[in-house]
């Protein structure tokens, strides 16, 4: 029951406070990772694996020590620590904080403002995007980050507590920093990308299933099974295909990266993306979180009843 209530508290903290503007631990972690990468970088997988371990393991060890120590001192201290750590790991409110300016700019007839806003969400070149492509990029980002920044963190917290959510969030951050197929990171970032794929395998599929149940189930399931295998990411494919099907919107397709257009499969079905697609994607994620919290609370209550029966 405690874990379910902690998850609820963390989501409420995120809704009220949003992402910390100053001194976010992930910012400090990112600086540490960037500093170490500059000193250990080599065009070898082994160098990337060593760097990953040196970056993550000290923080993971600290999380284990704090978690065990808090539990020995007081269950209330343990619950408070868990709620704060989980709050810092999830980014439900920040999804809206980043995505809504894109939708509002599109609705106001300001494509340049929308391109600038979506450029803060995605790594692709946004200057050449049409309005529909801008909306699609923002919608894709909301759906994918619904898994990376929300559902994945909730899953690993439920499974392994504070150490689990810390491991997941740091691995996900390193994948975002090093997991690119560029000359610099093709080999060095291999470990970061593969570890993130492994940690996201189950959460991504639970996220896809959540999108299906919270949207149009049949199209979501069909797009997931048919379109996701063609996507280059084994986890982003199911998440975005199911989300696009659930929303009945067309995503994917060619996109510009690093000065050239890359061919990507199409995802979803139905209408082309527009400003309302972004808002609907945000609602899909929020509804999914509500379902997860409700299921967690019901299961925890049922376990407590059985224990005292």
From TrEMBL:
It is a multi-pass membrane protein. InterPro entries: Cobalamin_biosynth_CobD/CbiB. Pathway: Cofactor biosynthesis; adenosylcobalamin biosynthesis. GO terms for cellular component: plasma membrane. Keywords: Cell membrane, Cobalamin biosynthesis, Membrane, Transmembrane, Transmembrane helix. GO terms for molecular function: ABC-type vitamin B12 transporter activity; threonine-phosphate decarboxylase activity. The keyword DNA-binding does not apply. GO terms for biological process: cobalamin biosynthetic process. Pfam families: CobD_Cbib (PF03186). Its main location: membrane. The chain crosses the membrane at residues 49-69, 76-96, 149-171, 289-306. It is found in: Cell membrane. Belongs to the CobD/CbiB family. Converts cobyric acid to cobinamide by the addition of aminopropanol on the F carboxylic group. NCBIfam families: cobal_cbiB. This is Cobalamin biosynthesis protein CobD. It comes from Marilutibacter alkalisoli. The gene is cobD.
């Amino acid at each position: 029951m405690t874990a379910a209530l902690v998850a609820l508290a963390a989501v409420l903290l995120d809704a009220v406070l949003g992402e910390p503007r100053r001194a976010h631990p992930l910012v400090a972690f990112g600086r540490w990772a960037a500093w170490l990468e500059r000193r250990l970088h080599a065009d070898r997988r082994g160098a990337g694996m060593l760097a990953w371990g040196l970056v993550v393991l000290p923080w993971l060890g600290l999380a284990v020590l704090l978690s065990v120590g808090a539990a020995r001192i007081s269950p209330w201290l343990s619950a408070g620590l868990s709620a704060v750590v989980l709050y810092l790991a999830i980014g439900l409110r920040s999804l809206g904080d980043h995505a809504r300016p894109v939708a509002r700019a599109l609705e106001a007839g300001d494509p340049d403002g929308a391109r600038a806003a979506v450029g803060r969400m995605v790594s692709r070149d946004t200057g050449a995007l049409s309005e529909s492509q801008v909306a699609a990029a923002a919608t894709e980002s909301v759906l994918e980050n619904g898994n990376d920044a929300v559902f994945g963190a909730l899953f690993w917290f439920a499974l392994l507590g504070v150490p689990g959510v810390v491991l997941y969030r740091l691995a996900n951050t390193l994948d975002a920093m090093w997991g690119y197929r560029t000359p610099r990171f093709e080999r060095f970032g291999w470990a970061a990308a593969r570890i993130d794929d492994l940690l996201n395998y189950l959460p991504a599929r639970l996220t896809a299933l959540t999108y299906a149940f919270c949207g149009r189930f049949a199209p979501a399931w069909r797009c997931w099974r048919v379109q996701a295998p063609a996507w280059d990411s084994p986890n982003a494919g199911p998440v975005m295909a199911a989300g696009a099907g659930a929303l009945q919107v067309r995503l994917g397709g060619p996109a510009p990266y690093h000065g050239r257009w890359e061919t990507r499969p199409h995802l979803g079905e139905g209408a082309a993306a527009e400003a309302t697609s972004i808002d609907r994607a945000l609602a899909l994620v929020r509804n999914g979180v509500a379902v997860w919290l409700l299921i967690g609370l019901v299961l925890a209550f049922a376990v407590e009843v059985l224990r005292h029966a």
